[in-house]
Each structure stands twice: as C-alpha cells, then as structure tokens.
Amino acid sequence: MRDFHRSAPAAVQMTVRDALNQAMDEELERDERVFLLGEEVAQYDGAYKVSRGLWKKYGDKRIIDTPISEINVLLQAGLRPICEFMTFNFSMQAIDQIINSAAKTYYMSAGLQSVPIVFRGPNGASAGVAAQHSQCFAAWYGHCPGLKVVSPWNSEDAKGLLKSAIRDENPVVVLENELLYGVPFEMSEEAQSKDFTIPIGKAKIERQGNSITLVAHSRYVGHCLDAAAVLAKEGIECEVINLRTIRPMDVESIETSVMKTNHLVTVEGGWPQFGIGAEICARIMEGPAFNYLDSPVTRVTGVDIPMPYAKILEDHSLPQVKDIIFSVKKTLNI
C-alpha cells in the first residue's frame, strides 16, 4: 500500500545575512510599530546588505536613513525602532543614548516607560580594518543593567534571537559578526517558521562531551567546534556551549556542564581584562561548580593590544583553533 503521508519540509541552508533579513522582514510585517533606522539601510540596502529589499517593500516611513538622534522621537511615539550600526565601533558615538537613556529609562520611570528598541550590527574584528574597527563590545554592554545583550553564532541564532529582541519590551543589543554574514548554516524546519524565536538568556549545547567544557559566543563557537573535532581524534571529548546571550548570562548551563566535565576553557575575541571569560570565571568560582573543578579555568582571548593592521599580526591577535587545542591540553595536563 502506498504511503500518502506528506513528508516534512527538509532543512535548508541559509546565510546569517539572509536569516537576519528574514527576521526583520517577518517582524516588520507582523507589527506596524517596528521600524529600521541606520546609515544607508534604505535605498542602499545596508552597508552589509542585511536590509536588502526592505526599503522597496516597506518604504520611506519604515526603513529610514537617519542619524541616531531621531530615536528618542520614535520611542515617545510608542514605536519599536531597530537601529543598525554600520559597526559597533561607531556605537561609541551613541553611548549616552544607549546607556543613560535606553538602559535606564524603565527603572527611572518606576516601570511606567518601557523602551522597546533594538541596537544591532557587526561586532568584533572583521579582516584588515585595524584598531578603530575591531573591538568586541560584548563586555562593554554586558556590564550595564537595563540592557539585554545577545551574540548569535549561526543562522538560527541570528533569526531567532533578533526576532525575540524586536518583540522584547526592553532595549536589546544584538552583536552580530561581519565575517559570518555570508556563511551558510542549516536552518531546521522549525527555524523556517515565522513564529520561530529563541529565548533570550538561554545557552545551547552545540556538542556533547565529558572531558572538558568549552564556552564561547559568536564566531568562536565555530572555532570551538573545529577544535573539538580535532581533539576527539585523540580521545578528548569536548562539550561546546554556545552562550547566545551575554546578558542575562545562562550560568546554570555552564555550571551543569562543569559539574560533568570538571574542566572549563572560555573562548572569546575580546580583550582579556574584564572580559566575558573573566565574568564566567568569577561566576564559577562563586557558585556550586567550583568544587567540581579539577584544574583552574583557562581563558582564550584576543591579545591585550589595539588591533594591528597587518594580516599576520591580526591573526596572532585573535584566538585560532590551534590556541584552543593548546589550552585544552594545558588544562587537562596532557
């Protein structure tokens, strides 16, 4: 007898750029209060083409080339702006609005005035753009109460976290990565739905393992998975955690993994001092997982210097897969 049951849609490949575009398109269609603002986001389709086609579909009133100073007007009108920075290095020009206005208004109004705004754009080092365009701002914005901060790795992260950010009643900083925009990742059937979101504040275990825990966010999740594949050939099974959210941080998932593996390495592209890895170290030391550690936590970070321009120096200033492998073996005393 023939099986007439319809097969489920297969997973598809989608770049991070297209996932972000799809997320904004779906949310602009879903809620007429959602707007996109930023340099060249309209007719030019965005500096990185993340907003491609949105201006043609939604027009001048909802896809706006405008300076950051217009944001307060939109918030007072009860709208939900998405503000794109061409790079988060340029967000320093808007730090007062982000920290002193967006992050603090809900608290200072005793909960009367919510601030549903998204600040998004590429964060961290790209390639060959030197010191003024290569900083990771995860620790900067993760430091500030009143903000939520997410840092997607793959296409599902990008779509699900951005949609959650747009729907959130609080200001959310979405730290993307320029080098990932054109990278295709598998999108599950679930992620292809217009209703797909990823909860802010929940990490994901990308690879199960019992030898050591690797924790990373953004591009360095991929580095950790590559290192884990190499180490597996030597019998070292790494558990890889994709943080997804910087603030609020899912410390419980990290603790649970450390209690299983008894070892921890953190990986990030930012500077070491006061970084994401430093915060994770402190949380583990202060919590129940500390007594399960069989060795000190090791941090793999960017080098503590402004980013050089020369490619060979740039490569030596950022974590590489070999650096993660070296740190794992050092932590395990192999």
Automatic annotation (TrEMBL):
Entry keyword annotation includes Oxidoreductase: yes
Gene Ontology MF term list: metal ion binding; pyruvate dehydrogenase (acetyl-transferring) activity
Domain Transketolase-like pyrimidine-binding positions: 14-183
Cofactors that this protein relies on: thiamine diphosphate
GO biological process: glucose metabolic process; pyruvate decarboxylation to acetyl-CoA
Cited SUPFAM superfamilies: Thiamin diphosphate-binding fold (THDP-binding), TK C-terminal domain-like
Keyword Oxidoreductase annotated: yes
Quaternary structure (record): Heterotetramer of two PDHA1 and two PDHB subunits. The heterotetramer interacts with DLAT, and is part of the multimeric pyruvate dehydrogenase complex that contains multiple copies of pyruvate dehydrogenase (E1), dihydrolipoamide acetyltransferase (DLAT, E2) and lipoamide dehydrogenase (DLD, E3). These subunits are bound to an inner core composed of about 48 DLAT and 12 PDHX molecules. Interacts with DLAT.
Keyword field: Carbohydrate metabolism, Glucose metabolism, Oxidoreductase, Pyruvate, Thiamine pyrophosphate
Listed EC numbers: 1.2.4.1
Function: The pyruvate dehydrogenase complex catalyzes the overall conversion of pyruvate to acetyl-CoA and CO(2), and thereby links the glycolytic pathway to the tricarboxylic cycle.
UniProt-recorded name of the protein: Pyruvate dehydrogenase E1 component subunit beta
Transmembrane parts of this sequence: none
A matching Pfam family: Transketolase_C
One Gene Ontology cellular component annotation held by this UniProt entry: pyruvate dehydrogenase complex
Organism: Oreochromis aureus (Israeli tilapia)
Reactions accelerated catalytically: N(6)-[(R)-lipoyl]-L-lysyl-[protein] + pyruvate + H(+) = N(6)-[(R)-S(8)-acetyldihydrolipoyl]-L-lysyl-[protein] + CO2
